[in-house]
Amino acid sequence: MGKSSKDKRDAYYRLAKEQSWRARSAFKLLHLDEHFDLFGSDVTRVVDLCAAPGSWSQVLSRVLVRGECLGRRAWTARMKRERKAVYHGLEGLDDGLDPNEEVDMGDRRPRNNVKIVAVDLQPIASLEGVQTLIADITHQDTIPRILEALKSDTIKEGETETKPLVDLVISDGAPDVTGMHDLDIFIQAQLLFSALNLALRILKPGGKFISKIFRGKDVDFIYAQMRCFFEKVTCAKPRSSRASSLEAFVICEGFNMPKGFNVEELLPLGIGGQNNLPFNNLKKPQKAASSSKEEKGAVGEVDFEVSEDETEDHRWIAPFVACGDLSAWDADATYSLPKDHVSLDPVQPPINPPYKAALEERRRKGGLYGKTKQ
Ligand SMILES: C[S@@+](CC[C@H](N)C(=O)[O-])C[C@H]1O[C@@H](n2cnc3c(N)ncnc32)[C@H](O)[C@@H]1O
Fold first, then answer.
1. What is the distance in A from the centroid of ligand 1 to the CA of 96?
2. Residue 286 above 50 pLDDT?
């Protein structure tokens, strides 16, 4: 598909180039933020896993380091402006707005002590305020490297740094898709669990974990595993993600390590095989359970319906949310473009893509699979 044709068929591909994003994925994160308010004012330390070419890190850099008004903040400001315009002059109508409240018109509010670490197998071109690491998130040596990168001058006031904890871990990990759905889903799930393993070690209590997920057969089991560690787990589909794609995002809020659970002893999480997750030990929920703080954090608090009948299917269904403003571009639609439309080049071509050797070989042979060479 030519660049111009792709501009028509993929509005977010075109918009990414027009708005200087390195990839269309930036819109997915912004749409998720519109709904889930991922970058609340207390968020200053973030780890971005599987981050190349770096559009999610760009969002982080622009929101946290430069303090730009994007995502949720921009959406709220737009809503307020629109409501003000509609109600302007209609006396006696209560528009629900405080007339003295300033509408945020996009002023910059950079944050203090920001720390952003971005990790990928591929190199990531530099970004303001982002520390990049070339590493495999499935490899155990990556954990100490990330911890080292997080250790720094960014300790918040009143904190002593025993372990460098972060507010948010995001992961957009995806393998090079083969088209064999079962295989792609399996490999993506392994990336997701590697990201979760990392998140459990570096998130502060109450922190958030966001990850891409392919909605395959065992997806409920994955949500249930997440639910052991987070108070709220939601499956979200941003408007910028094609409806035809298996892709969605799991939004885990309120990190709460179950009492007595030792993450260092964690067997690999995942689909199939044995695991030592708390819900394996769940007893039938006690109706009159105490709500003491200690017990809240404990294993038995995870609220699955478990009966004595072992043949019964015990599924925990995560709520599903479609997010992104309805007025946003439709990722599955084809839009016509003006006659004088100029197709732009991608903002940041990959530095050292795995297909580089194949491209060079193709060029050497004189074109597509050597077909044009006489
Ligand atoms: C969809 S892209 C991420 C796009 C990115 N969020 C952005 O906004 O630019 C998926 C990334 O996952 C990375 N990836 C796949 N397996 C990985 C692994 N084992 N460790 C680290 N990164 C990995 C790939 O190199 C690729 O860059």
1. 43
2. no
